[in-house]
Amino acid sequence: MKLTLYMSQTINGYIAKENGDTPWSQEVWNSYYKIAKSFKAIILGRKTYEIMESVKEFKKIGNPFTVVVTKKAKKNEDKTFFVKNPKEAIKLLKQKGFKTALIGGGGKVNASFMKEKLIDEIILDIEPLIFGNGMKLFADNNFEAKLELSELKKLSANTIQVKYTVKK
After folding, report:
1. φ/ψ (deg, to 5) at 84
2. What is the pLDDT of residues 12-43, one digit of tens each?
3. pTM (2 d.p.)
4. What percent of the residues of the chain are helix, what percent strand, and what percent coil, each to the nearest 5?
5. What is the DSSP string of 52-116?
6. Backbone dihedral angles phi then psi of residue 34, each to the nearest 5 degrees
7. Does residue 106 have a cis peptide bond before it, meaning omega lies within 30 degrees of 0?
8. Which CATH number applies to 2-167?
9. First and final C-alpha spacing in the chain
10. Strand, helix or coil at 135?
11. Residue-range domain boundaries for the chain
12. What distance in Å separates the CA atoms of residue 154 and residue 103, rounded to the nearest whole number?
């Protein structure tokens, strides 16, 4: 199974402010919708799922099959399933016939998949912003990875998108 992590971040590596606010440009939101719609399955952490659910984001990205990684037990719904860890998420997606999935955050989920060496590709939209503090791209964890740049493009005059392949 191919897993792609896709996130927007500041130049100092934050994916959101402490309060969860993500003040990204319209170019970044347009890129997000385009990429997210190209996947039929998405993996999220509980907080990210709750934020997306509250603002009706799933409809905007085509109502993908959604796997939420959380320690809190919740009842599975129509196209939303709750699992405890990355390996359970992969097992479920494979059982449902998916060959690819998008990982959409947050920092704890991103780090847990990286630690398990499950991410194949990373796409980052980098905004010309600096947050003094907030949510990191990867929550503190004990892992390392080597990446290979596969694509670089400008989304606007000041915003870039980088795509990396994770070397295994």
Report:
1. -95, -20
2. 999 999 998 999 999 999 999 999 999 999 99
3. 0.95
4. 25, 30, 40
5. HHHTTHHHHTT--EEEEE-SS-----SSEEEESSHHHHHHHHHHTT-SEEEE---HHHHHHHHHT
6. -65, -50
7. yes
8. 3.40.430.10
9. 14
10. strand
11. 2-167
12. 22
